[in-house]
Amino acid sequence: NVAHGLAWSYYIGYLKIVLPRLKDSISVFNENNRFLLKCKKTWKLHILLPLNCEVYDSLWRADSRIQFINNLPELNVDRAGIKRRTYKNSIYGISDEDQKTHFCVVEYATPLQSLYAMSQDENAAFSRQARLEQAKLFCRTLEEILEKSKECSGCYQLIVYNDSEENDKHFLSKEILRHLKQQN
Amino acid sequence: NVAHGLAWSYYIGYLKIVLPRLKDSISVFNENNRFLLKCKKTWKLHILLPLNCEVYDSLWRADSRIQFINNLPELNVDRAGIKRRTYKNSIYGISDEDQKTHFCVVEYATPLQSLYAMSQDENAAFSRQARLEQAKLFCRTLEEILEKSKECSGCYQLIVYNDSEENDKHFLSKEILRHLKQQN
Ligand SMILES: Nc1nc(=O)c2ncn([C@@H]3O[C@@H]4COP(=O)(O)O[C@H]5[C@@H](O)[C@H](n6cnc7c(N)ncnc76)O[C@@H]5COP(=O)(O)O[C@@H]3[C@@H]4O)c2[nH]1
Fold first, then answer.
1. Which of A128, A131, A165, A181 has the smallest CB count inside 10 Å?
2. STING ligand-binding domain: which residues (chains A, B) (predicted)?
3. Is the Cβ–Cβ distance between B141 and B160 less than 8 Å?
């Protein structure tokens, strides 16, 4: 089961490394940036999980109301022979209907991009049907893993959505803001 | 099949990005470092694939004859919402029995570290038996994917080995040097 392995790898090789240090990282950023991220309840990694696996490399291209602000201080770790492999997360400003900006740390779950690419490559033998099933399995498995993880408790917010039906070009910003409001 | 997805994700999310630029990267490094990597036939990414999934974060700890020299110029790419995500590879000096040093770009295949961690986590329900099968499947799948990849042709060398039986603490350096000699 492709998604099962991808969810575990995403947890073990990434979230388990970055999440425990995230709040400190945001705290340092805030001190140097006039306390941009005001509400501590939103000091989490907001992970975008589009079930259709359409992952944009730039969030602004997905929705023009999502603007890149800055990267958090980077984390450098020796890993599997790579000296000082770099991990970084990006802060975005998200505008609402009243043009007020809300700040948060947000990104797509990278493995969904792999699922998408697999369904495009003829050698992977992976249909669009299978891709949707695997995307759902990825989200479910990731949720279960994170719920059991003490190290990552309170450090993340999963944002699962299916925007294949959406004609609203500001669907994504509204979806993220909806989740941010729920945390306040 | 866990390994199938990890091999595809490793190719799509990493090798397809770094391998096509590797020779240029080594060329730039060489010009600034007195042409340390002399033999162009070894201008490849040497990927270590230990079937027992024992991946060290520092190669020197695996074998003291493997010394870190420097990192290649880094590659920064916007990916899945992360601005300027960093990719880097490390150059090592490997000493032979006559204490002569040979230079190359080498690292472990990180997904094997995920397989190892999965076999250690009780929630993953992944036995040591399954881990060995998946490690072999990972290597086979990766080999097949890379053989069909035009972009990556001539840019990599897979070094598959099983050193569970080895009592030679310089097994790894000898194994890498054996592969380097074959390319000359
Ligand atoms: N957003 C994000 N930022 C990161 O820095 C990062 N690093 C890993 N991941 C995701 O976590 C999971 C586990 O990573 P692992 O390192 O075991 O496998 C990685 C690793 O073997 C290799 N790879 C990717 N980036 C690098 C890198 N910079 N250096 C070495 N290897 C890398 O290719 C695999 C797939 O990478 P991604 O497809 O980007 O997604 C990974 C994966 O889903 C990241 N996700």
1. A165
2. 1-184
3. no
